[in-house]
Amino acid sequence: MEDAAAGGATDIVAPETPDAWELAIDGQVDSYTALRQRLIYFLVSASIALIAFVVNFYVQQVQAKPRFRSQPLHPSILACAVVAALLCSGASLLSIHLGHLAYRQHLKHRYEHKRYRDLTPAEQKSFDCPTRWSSRALQLAFLALFAEVFCLGVFFFPVLLVTTS
Known about the structure:
This protein has 5 helices and no strands. By secondary structure, the chain is an all-alpha fold. The protein has one domain (about 20-165).
């Protein structure tokens, strides 16, 4: 100690290592991120697959068969479903982008050996904002997928009437 006070060699302190609890939290963050990405990929795939099926059905079946031509299949309902599908896909991709921004912030702070409670209010806000908006975008994606399925149900209702009668 006297050497350090006199300007001599000082003890080098190793960086603080995370304890088992912090490592478990990091594992949960990784699992949550992977699960969330799979959910988002499902939303994008579901919305686009539904629209691809319906547009294909409309072109090949409805316009080609006279029994469907007399039914009130409104292309405007199909257009609303397409818009909802694009909104679902766009909101899903925005959610994943914002989630990656938050994850990058998380990694940055972990490499700096900072916990959330150690962050300044500005740093906490830069972490919370993308996380909050990512959740909102994911909620919007779910609502858009629901709207798409609802529009497609309304669109196909006359088809069900024709095929059951």
